[in-house]
Amino acid sequence: MSHATPDNLVCPQTAHFSAPLELQSGGTLPDWDLVYETHGTLNADASNAILVCHALSGNHHIAGYHHPQDKKPGWWDNMIGVGKPIDTRKFFVVGVNNLGGCHGSTGPSSINPATGKAWGAQFPMVTVIDWTHAQAQLADRLGIRQFAAIIGGSLGGMQALQWSITYPDRLRHCLVIAAAPYLTAQNIAFNDVARQAILTDPDFHDGNYYAFGSTPRRGLRLARMLGHITYLSDDAMGSKFGRVLRHGSFAYHHEVEFEIESYLRYQGDKFAETFDANTYLLMTKALDYFDPAQHAESLAAALGPARASFLVISFTTDWRFAPERSREIVRALLDNGRDVSYAEIESTHGHDAFLMPHAHYHALIRAYMDRINL
Amino acid sequence: MSHATPDNLVCPQTAHFSAPLELQSGGTLPDWDLVYETHGTLNADASNAILVCHALSGNHHIAGYHHPQDKKPGWWDNMIGVGKPIDTRKFFVVGVNNLGGCHGSTGPSSINPATGKAWGAQFPMVTVIDWTHAQAQLADRLGIRQFAAIIGGSLGGMQALQWSITYPDRLRHCLVIAAAPYLTAQNIAFNDVARQAILTDPDFHDGNYYAFGSTPRRGLRLARMLGHITYLSDDAMGSKFGRVLRHGSFAYHHEVEFEIESYLRYQGDKFAETFDANTYLLMTKALDYFDPAQHAESLAAALGPARASFLVISFTTDWRFAPERSREIVRALLDNGRDVSYAEIESTHGHDAFLMPHAHYHALIRAYMDRINL
Q1: Contacts of B231 in chain A (CB under 8 A)
Q2: pLDDT of A3 higher than 90
């Protein structure tokens, strides 16, 4: 059953940009689209705009429903809406699909105007910095000179952080949730296994699988199964699945024996049906490349330009981006004398906690958002 | 250069068993071989025998060299030999390749006498309990009624533990290193991703790839890459590789950017050339199935029959089988009034620490082995 009502229907829109976008990789997008959706109303002086940045497999559909028959709302519907922590009666909230995505913004499955065929492997690498530039152009288009806040979790949190460096005067508040200032070797290693699963799938065809009418389903499925393990905590998996058997006793075969196997394979299958493999590759590369301090003396030096106030949040059982990673960000911001609030939320849900309607977490966001002056 | 000398050359031997072995899965091996090697000399009353059980990808080659030109010795050469913690001047040390293996013991790549072809997918599932039964027959063959000690790390530690339950009067000491009393949902999940990588590789041919002259190299490579991440600690990966780039700056492509990617892919490639995929599947399933307490009231109840003295060792940064998993074993043994020593070794090397020549760890094993009465 859908919980869609006339009040929570939202219609995605597409902004077309015809000026070429120069990318950090050296590539160029000759012209490009961003698909986005908005919730609430932009006030007269455009001081109440919020940008919500999505994570690896997210998109612009942050809340509400696109169609009356949709079974599931946008991915952060528990956070954004009337009376919710990010209250759309106060704020004008923008969700935008990143460049390279597969939900409407220009990406590898889009048509390359130069060839009339899908970009495929020819689509250039995109980085978090590129995304901030593209999003800034969308903000210009929407008449938003300065966001009241830019908010994101995981890869979205990295985008919010990057905004505070790239466009310090275009946001007053920056909410960085379950993020990290860069990926560790272990983080990169997990990403690389996921990518190798896709790249070595015979149906990948060097990224041009669209032309073959195929899709590297096996590789994408493995990538997602692996990803899921890193999103959940060992404890959460233990309490949800433990060693519960599918059929009560061992069958000694390679079909599902344990419920956890069933869950993971299902998640993998579902994802492989709906997500674009080239986009998955790009998003994981963007994660790897993210490192504001790469050419700076330190993270603190890299964050020197930032002017926003910050709320940084981590979750105790998140082992993908553990609390210590958030504390690195906090320390670097404090070294710059920035206004920083930091909370480490007790949660059993691992990295996925940032998507959950955890009471303390939501209360914290609500209180922070309530205090924002327009 | 090889460090092989006339004194450290060892010759593997094969024991053939012609009586069928009934397996826990309900399957039967009509006749079967175990390949093994021995170090030191069995004393007159056969009271100085040690059984060393191997882990997932290990084998019978525990120490020394098989050929004068071998570059690398057996996998536990730092632990076993003259003057080493398991001193072959005192002990007669036996290494044996598990059934289902791919290094000489009967396994999926062996010829099925019923068909004259490789067993392939027809090879029955084998469990840790099956291994103890097979190893006990080898002990009979070697004239060993009771082992002075049975020793193993990881999956090998589980075998040692199982021996203490299945054949309580056939071992006086049991050394359980970097092990766990059962796999958690997260452990099983990692195994399942690895297995799915192999099972869905088009070159797997339902396990009968031998007949096709192919091997599911891509799947096995992914499985090993993933395995490697879980063997190393986040810290160890960080200090060894960090974010060090292969070519000094980003190239924005899918070839190697970071050294960690190079390392993992190399490990995966090397393994995929030498290990049998069906064996890999079987070994991970044996891990999943291992659960002495499955049909008991508790782990303590399951360990009720054990009579050995125990040394249990864990490593602080091992997140595959964390110290807490070893403490579960220790508590259950103490509940039975068993003689247990437990050490939690400070190490940065994660699960792999059990293979490393860590001074404290080796001193501990040495002291324990020295105290064993013959």
Answers
A1: none
A2: no
C-beta of residue B52 within 8 angstroms of C-beta of residue B78: no
pLDDT band at A6 (very low <50, low <70, confident <90, very high): confident
Q: Do B281 and A229 touch (CB under 8 A)?
A: no
In this prediction, residue B258 carries a pLDDT of 98
Is A180 within 8 Å of A321 (Cβ atoms)? yes
Residue of chain B with shortest Cα separation from A295: B249
- Per residue in B246-271, pLDDT (tens digit) is 999 999 999 999 999 999 999 999 99
**CA separation for the pair A194, A222 (Å, rounded):** 7
What mean pLDDT is predicted for residues A23-44? 97
Instruction: List chain B residues with CB under 8 Å of A241.
Output: 185
Mean per-residue pLDDT, B71-85? 97
Average pLDDT value for residue range A341-347: 98
Q: Phi/psi at A65 (nearest 5 deg)? A: -130, 145
Q: Indicate which residues of B carry an active-site annotation.
A: 154, 318, 351
Strand segments, DSSP code E, in chain B are 13-17, 21-22, 28-29, 32-39, 49-53, 80-81, 86-87, 92-96, 111-112, 117-118, 147-153, 171-177, 309-315, 340-345
Gap between the Cα atoms of A204 and A220, Å rounded: 10
The structure's pTM equals 0.97
Distance from A242 to chain B by nearest Cα, in Å?
Answer: 5
